[in-house]
TrEMBL record:
This is NAD(P)-dependent dehydrogenase (Short-subunit alcohol dehydrogenase family). InterPro entries: NAD(P)-bd_dom_sf, Sc_DH/Rdtase_CS, SDR_fam, Sec_Metab_Biosynth_SDR. One of its GO terms (molecular function) is oxidoreductase activity. Keywords: NADP, Oxidoreductase.
């Protein structure tokens, strides 16, 4: 038995058209899964599907997941094509940095809506399809994408981002306890610095310094993120739930 084989499985990756979401989508495809991608912009979804075509079957469904209604619509759209969803990756997110004195209310509302409320509403919307996919010894999987900023204190003024990711880590634990008896595991991945649009400005300015602070001496690579999501989605990770796994080269240990 191949512990990491996902042949025949269906996965949904939100925010799957770029950055960490795209890395995860590629890994799931390479392991044999069919992957539905979601992002706000249809053209971004089309471009990602074209980029991923060499690895397997990817389908794009545009959605603005900052509202519960759109979370429900995404689940309904996927449900029109699939009887089961084996893996739900809640990755869609945003960040905001601004000094304490001027940090706006909108930065709290936007980030809590997308980074914390959206994973909850998506989990609830996809629950029937996830339960339908669960079998004895092979549970359905939910993977929430948190951040090491929810584990240690980032010197950058990203107040609502850090709080939303710490909240997502705790929500992961709560849902793991709730959904385990229903045959669903719930885990979180806490990425460190990876090359992505969200991190682009930071890495341009401080990339070498950040890499130097990592015990492994580098920033994350696409295979690092692909590997952890395949592990959590496959037979290899079937007995793991309620975990928050840093994928940061050890940066959180040096805070």
């Amino acid at each position: 038995m191949d512990l990491f084989d996902l042949t025949g499985k269906v996965a949904v990756v939100t925010g799957g058209t770029r950055g960490i979401g795209l890395m995860m989508a590629r890994g799931l495809l390479q392991a044999g899964a069919k992957v539905y991608l979601s992002s706000r912009k249809a053209e971004a979804g089309d471009a990602a599907v074209a980029e991923l075509a060499e690895f397997g079957t990817a389908v794009s469904i545009p959605a603005d997941l900052s509202t519960e209604a759109e979370c429900v619509r995404l689940a309904e759209e996927v449900g029109r094509h699939e009887e089961r969803v084996h893996v739900l990756v809640n990755n869609a997110g945003a960040t905001w940095g601004e000094p304490l004195e001027t940090f706006p209310e909108s930065a709290w509302d936007k980030l809590l809506d997308l980074n914390l409320k959206s994973p909850f509403f998506l989990t609830r919307a996809f629950l029937p399809k996830l339960q339908a996919a669960a079998t004895e010894g092979d549970p359905a999987r939910i993977v929430n994408v948190g951040s090491i900023d929810g584990l240690h204190v980032n010197p950058m003024p990203t107040y609502s981002y850090a709080a939303s990711k710490a909240g997502l880590h705790q929500l992961t634990r709560v849902l793991a306890k709730e959904l385990g008896p229903r045959g669903i595991t719930v885990n979180a991945v806490a990425p460190g610095p990876f090359e992505s649009k969200m991190m682009a400005a930071t890495l341009d300015a401080f990339g070498a310094e950040i890499a130097a602070k990592s015990p492994l001496g580098r920033i994350g690579r696409p295979d690092d993120m692909a590997g952890v999501v395949v592990y959590l989605s496959s037979r290899a990770g079937a007995y793991v739930t309620g975990a928050v796994i840093p994928v940061d080269g050890g940066i959180a240990t040096t805070a």
